[in-house]
Amino acid sequence: SLNIPGEMGLLGILLNHAPLVTPLTKGRIDLVMADKTKKAFLIDGGFFEVVYNQATVLVEKIKPTEPLDK
């Protein structure tokens, strides 16, 4: 699963999500991998696309950070 800061609010993305392209705002990306490991990143904004269960994040700056709950 993926939580990402969209312009209209926080987006939750799960498996088989409908295709989507949206601008991103400054905030935090939280990602849970297939093996249940968690990753988190801070971004300054950008763009996000999801299609056919593949997510693409385009940003100028990204910084790894600690997941909220390891």
In short:
With 70 residues, the protein is mostly beta strands. The protein has strands at 2-6, 9-13, 20-24, 27-32, 38-43, 46-51, 54-59, 62-65.
User: Secondary-structure element sequence?
Assistant: EEEEEEEE
> What is the mean pLDDT?
94
Low-confidence stretches: none
Number of helices: 0
Morphology = globular
Strand order of the largest sheet: 2-1-4-5-8
As a whole number of angstroms, the C-alpha radius of gyration is: 11 Å
What would you call the structural class?
mainly beta
- How many DSSP E strands? 8
Percent strand: over 45%
Q: Sketch the major β-sheet.
A: 5 strands, antiparallel
Helix content: under 10%
Structure description:
The chain is mainly beta and 70 residues long. It contains no helices and 8 strands. A hairpin with a 5-residue loop joins strand 4 (27-32) and strand 5 (38-43). Helices cover 0% and strands 61% of the residues. The strands form 2 sheets. A 5-stranded antiparallel β-sheet has the order 2-1-4-5-8, with no helix packed on it. It has a 3-stranded antiparallel β-sheet with strand order 3-6-7, with no helix packed on it. The two termini are 15 Å apart. It is globular.
